[in-house]
């Protein structure tokens, strides 16, 4: 049963929304309503096995846990991409790679988000099983561990050895600042279970009387009156309702957050007019100039059968501009229904220059928007990726048990790290200030990867959890 009012309504119970709702409800005097479009669960036993199992990434074509969006990676490559639509969001279905943004990434954020400023928050969200000390947390909700050297999957072990033989240094701790090289991936996995933010933060506090969680419920728009967010309009099986709130925190993810703002009349005035939406506040940056990691998957063949059931990525190699990811199993094994039979080595462009945009459909602005990535639009991106494919081919040729590395197939995709659709900053294209408050609208915040000024040079998940923790535990909502 939905309350008629909550002090704070959190829109979206994904990676960030789970953390925000849990931390804001730490104050028993604050009522919090978390609204999630996808299905929910009340305990780890209640979760579907494929959400629990860290070796499965349940985002294939028949998944019950995702929304699919049309995507144009380049003018020629049209595809679809998935995001989580379940309590825990994309963090409930992801690869469980939990690597922090680098100091250089955070240097592109407002000064209050420098590496030195946020280190305490990175530490607070985790319990690192391998590295105690000043850089790591020992009592945070998210368990972080690397696969022990002696238990690495044969592909991961061979990739590490080959990279070291090729002259790359071993990095012991990929969550410490320092030089690039090859190392074991910090994973948010405990006993084979993917411990995303819903499991780590939200389930332990579901008993609170000041926290209500409505799953299977869509937020249709933020209600804005006289320049202030005063609540949300939602749809569930029983109809359409209005819930009033003192503050609305949008955590609907990097696609739905900008869409929801636009549906609420906040966004680029020219585009809202084209869509037939009344303009309440002209914010040109909404949905524009996003970044994500282009990833070329290089398919190859193995000479022998390899074990399954390992985490999808156990080791990676970083250079200035690239991340090479030796996936331990074919996507067809890890992602039910995806049908990709060969194993792949992923080549990720970590600091892409091309910028994309979220495009709403004028015929039905509520439907899934198109993601226009404009990948490889910048010549340096093309050059860097080509260099990455060459490096990957050389490493594969030197790895034992690879069959015919000369017949490699390549396929351009995306790492699904969409960021910056509602950028944080003070410039004309920014949407929120450094405390994640939407410019020009009182009582409205966005807290998810939409607000990243740019995609970090590593996967975004650890940084997203840090962001949500930092915002929700500061005095910035009080
Ligand atoms: C398949 C996949 C694998 C990935 N693997 C990794 C990885 O291994 N490591 C890494 O660092 N990153 C990874 N990522 C990226 C990372 O998981 C995401 O960047 C991160 O989880 C995003 O968190 P978020 O809170 O911004 O959004 P989400 O976690 O996507 O949460 C948004 C939530 O809002 C809900 N919602 C949306 N609209 C509404 C609405 N109108 N009303 C109510 N609810 C709504 C959605 O259902 C969803 O639950 C992966 C992403 C995907 C999709």
From TrEMBL:
InterPro entries: FAD/NAD-bd_sf, GMC_oxidoreductase_bact, GMC_OxRdtase, GMC_OxRdtase_N, GMC_OxRtase_C
Coiled coil: none
UniProt xrefs under SUPFAM superfamilies: FAD-linked reductases, C-terminal domain (SSF54373), FAD/NAD(P)-binding domain (SSF51905)
Entry keyword set: FAD, Flavoprotein, Oxidoreductase
EC number in record: 1.-.-.-
Keyword Oxidoreductase attached: yes
Ranges for domain Glucose-methanol-choline oxidoreductase N-terminal: 84-107, 253-267
Record family assignment: Belongs to the GMC oxidoreductase family.
Name of this protein: Mycofactocin system GMC family oxidoreductase MftG
Organism of provenance: Rhodococcus zopfii
Gene: mftG
């Amino acid at each position: 049963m939905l309350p008629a009012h909550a002090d704070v309504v959190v829109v979206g119970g994904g990676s960030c929304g789970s953390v925000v709702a849990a931390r804001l409800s730490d104050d028993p005097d604050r009522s919090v309503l978390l609204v999630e479009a996808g299905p929910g669960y009340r305990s780890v036993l209640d979760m579907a096995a494929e959400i629990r199992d860290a070796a499965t990434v349940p985002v294939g074509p028949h998944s019950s846990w995702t929304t699919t969006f049309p995507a144009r990676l380049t003018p020629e490559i049209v595809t679809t991409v998935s995001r989580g639509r379940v309590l825990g969001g994309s963090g409930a279905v992801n690869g469980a790679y939990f690597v922090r943004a680098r100091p250089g990434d955070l240097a592109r954020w407002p000064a209050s988000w420098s590496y030195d400023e946020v280190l305490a928050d990175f530490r607070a969200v985790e319990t690192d099983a391998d590295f105690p000390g000043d850089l790591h947390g020992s009592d945070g909700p998210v368990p972080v561990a690397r696969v022990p050297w002696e238990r690495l999957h044969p592909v991961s072990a061979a990739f590490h050895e080959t990279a070291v033989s090729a002259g790359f240094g071993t990095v012991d701790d990929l969550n410490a600042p320092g030089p690039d090289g090859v190392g074991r991936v910090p994973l948010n996995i405990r006993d084979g279970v993917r411990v995303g933010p819903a499991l780590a933060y939200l389930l332990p506090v579901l008993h609170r009387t000041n926290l209500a969680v409505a799953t299977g419920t869509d937020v249709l728009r933020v209600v804005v009156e006289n320049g202030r967010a005063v609540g949300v309009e939602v749809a569930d099986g029983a109809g359409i309702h209005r819930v009033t709130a003192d503050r609305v925190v949008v955590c609907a993810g990097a696609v739905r957050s900008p869409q929801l703002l636009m549906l609420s009349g906040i966004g680029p005035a020219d585009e809202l007019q084209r869509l037939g939406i009344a303009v309440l506040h002209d914010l040109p940056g909404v949905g524009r100039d996003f970044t994500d990691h282009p990833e070329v998957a290089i398919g190859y063949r193995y000479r022998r059968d390899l074990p399954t059931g390992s985490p999808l990525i156990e080791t990676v190699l970083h250079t200035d501009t690239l991340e090479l990811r030796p996936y331990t199993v074919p996507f067809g094994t890890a992602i039910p229904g995806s049908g990709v039979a060969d194993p792949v080595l992923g080549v990720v462009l970590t600091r892409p220059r091309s910028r994309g945009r979220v495009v709403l459909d004028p015929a039905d602005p509520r439907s899934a928007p198109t993601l226009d990535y404009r990948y490889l639009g910048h010549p340096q991106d093309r050059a860097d990726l080509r260099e990455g494919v060459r490096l990957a081919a050389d490493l594969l040729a030197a790895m034992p048990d690879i069959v015919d590395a000369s017949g490699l197939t390549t396929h351009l995709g995306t790492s699904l790290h969409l960021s910056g659709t509602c950028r944080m900053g003070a410039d004309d294209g920014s949407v929120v200030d450094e405390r994640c408050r939407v410019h020009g609208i009182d009582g409205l915040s966005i807290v998810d990867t939409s607000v990243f000024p740019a995609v970090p040079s590593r996967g975004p998940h650890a940084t997203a959890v840090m962001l949500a923790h930092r915002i929700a535990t500061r005095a910035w909502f009080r």
